[in-house]
Design a protein that fits this description.
Order of helices and strands: EHHEHEE
Strand content: 15-25%
Shape: globular
């Protein structure tokens, strides 16, 4: 599973708003349903929901500390628990979030 870079996806979305009238596309098909939020925790929740409703088995996202502080990781864990198991690994500049969806989840889509 290739990791999705949260900041790159936000930038891609914002750029496509300026250059496309419709059909905002992303490298991951399920991300077409996602809209970023000024609050990165809500933005991640949107990613979790989009992947869940598309039947994804897992989601791997990287996010920098500049975007998501350590203090907010508990919020992310609590939201992710509704979907499956979340593993957070620290990286040099942030976090690697691996969400493994429970079998037959799609409880939010």
């Amino acid at each position: 599973m290739e990791p999705l870079c949260y900041e790159a996806l936000v930038q891609e979305f914002e750029s496509s708003l300026l250059t496309q009238l419709r059909g905002h596309r992303s490298t991951a098909a399920f991300m077409e349903m996602w809209v970023p939020d000024e609050d990165p925790v809500r933005g991640l929740l949107g990613m979790f929901e989009a992947a869940d409703s598309s039947g994804e088995k897992g989601l791997l996202v990287t996010v920098t500390r500049a975007t998501l502080s350590e203090a907010r990781l508990g919020e992310v864990r609590a939201l992710a628990a509704e979907f499956g198991d979340l593993t957070i690994t620290e990286t040099a500049d942030g976090y690697r979030l691996l969400l493994t969806y429970e079998a037959g989840s799609t409880s939010h889509g």
